[in-house]
Write a structure and sequence with these properties.
single chain; alpha/beta; 6-stranded mixed sheet; 4-stranded antiparallel sheet; 7 helices; globular; disordered N terminus
Length: 229
């Protein structure tokens, strides 16, 4: 991962609106910027649009209007064949995990490194270390179908951070784990942030937000995004 200089912007939204089909806008006039190397929480009630906002950031959706800029690329003006390279610079933790059922825990986490052509010796060294950190050493050869929801969540997080993305988007990453594991995962995100990754964590847990001093946070209410100190 090439570390971006502080002061550069990783994400920029300008008057962005989003609607599904012919329905009303669920996000409206969204304006914010994520500077390189920053760490923010994204809060809001269930159904407020947190997941939709994250999908716009990793190019899983196109806005109905407005301007989305990712890594200095105006997405509306970016050629389709260039989009996969931009997506590879983003790590995403999905609520539904999106693990590959035919792969073991080890191989799911190793996947981003293998796609990038990292040497197998490096993979064999670093993947077990990360799985140990998230408390999954005992499930290294397990298939997703044998794992609990909390274990799948940790595999998904390990996979997302394994490649040291430039931007990490985590959608309710602690929703299926106990408080002890939740804190370990947030500390993992903080260590990744210290290496230069920009972090955005969507959560409905005010308690979690209060325990970490990352400001300002983004808050969604009535389709609008506000920065809250």
């Amino acid at each position: 991962m090439a570390k971006r200089s502080l002061g550069e912007n990783v994400v920029h939204f300008e008057s962005v609106g989003l609607r599904y089909g012919l329905g009303p806008e669920i996000l409206q006039d969204v304006n914010f910027t994520l500077p390189a190397g920053s760490f923010h929480f994204l809060t809001g009630a269930s159904g407020a649009g947190k997941s939709s906002l994250l999908r716009l950031m990793f190019l899983g959706l196109r806005p109905s209007r407005g301007r989305v800029v990712l890594f200095d690329h105006d997405i509306a003006q970016t050629k389709r064949y260039e989009l996969p390279a931009l997506r590879r610079r983003v790590g995403v933790v999905f609520q539904d995990f999106r693990l590959l059922d035919h792969l073991s825990t080890f191989d799911n986490v190793a996947l981003p490194l293998r796609v990038r052509g990292v040497r197998e010796s490096e993979i064999q060294k670093h993947v077990p270390e990360l799985l140990s950190w998230v408390g999954l050493s005992g499930q290294i050869n397990a298939k997703p179908s044998t794992l609990s929801g909390g274990q799948k969540q940790r595999v998904a997080i390990a996979r997302a951070v394994m490649g040291r993305p430039e931007l990490l988007l985590a959608d309710e990453p602690t929703g299926n784990v106990d408080d002890h594991i939740a804190m370990r995962l947030l500390y993992l995100f903080e260590e990744l942030n210290k290496l230069g990754t920009t972090i955005l964590v969507a959560t409905h847990s005010d308690q979690l937000v209060a325990r970490f001093a990352h400001q300002p946070r983004l808050h969604i209410e009535n389709g609008e995004v506000q920065k809250v100190s």
